[in-house]
Each structure stands twice: as C-alpha cells, then as structure tokens.
Amino acid sequence: MDTHIYKTKLEEEIKILIAELSSMGKNIDPEADGWEAVPEKMDEMEADENDLADRFEDYEKNSEEVRELDARLREVHNALKKIEAGTYGTCEVCHARIEEDRLLANPAARTCKEHMHG
Ligand SMILES: [Zn+2]
Asked: Taking Cα atoms as reference points, which of 54, 63, 77 lies closest to residue 28?
C-alpha cells in the first residue's frame, strides 16, 4: 500500500492541530500530547463578578475544544506510528483493508466503513 499521500496529510494535520492548540492552551506533557487549556490572564482587582463568570465560561469552552483537538492529535500520531510499523490502513475490528475514500476523508481512520460506528 502506498502510504505516502496519507503520511503527508497526517503531517499537515499535526501542524494545524498544534497551531490551534497553541492558541488556546499549552503542552504540559509533550511525551504524551498532553495539552491543557490556559485560563486568560485576569486582573482580579478590576474584573467584576460578571466579568469573571464570562471568562470562566470561555475557559470552559476552550478546555472542551482543547480536549477534542488533543484527542484528535493522538489519533493522528497513532496513525503515523502505524505507517512506520507497516500496519496502516487496516481495520482494527475485522482487519480488512480500509476503503481508500474513507482514508482520504479521514487519514487517521482506525476502522473500515462497516465498523466506523462503535
Ligand atoms: Zn472492519
């Protein structure tokens, strides 16, 4: 299987994910892709209660997004490891070859179309 095109796509996606993550959080555990949202700096002397509540909401939203991006980053790294190991493009459930159009849509796909849900 020619994995070159998928490898390029995965590496591109890592760059985008890291750029997005860097804008909202910081990497607290680089070995394990451990990203965490960073709260906005706030001047508590000046911020009133509503302000603080708003910022806390923003932080919650960022945390959620960082968790999702972080999970995706792990998937992408996992797929790259499979390319290196020579096991890329195989369904983790039935071990059949994953459809090419599915891999093009999601190069980090772990399963074939039949097993993509659950
Ligand atoms: Zn399958």
From this structure: 63
Q: Which residue has the tokens 């097993």?
A: 115
Domains of the chain, each with CATH number or no CATH: 4-23+49-115 (1.20.120.910)
CA of 96 to the centre of ligand 1 (A): 6
pLDDT value of position 30: 77
Distance, CA 12 to ligand 1 centroid (Å)? Answer: 26
Q: For residue range 59-111, list pLDDT tens digits in order.
A: 999 999 999 999 999 999 999 999 999 999 999 999 999 999 999 999 999 99
Name the token pair of 44.
């508590």
CA of 93 to the centre of ligand 1 (A): 5
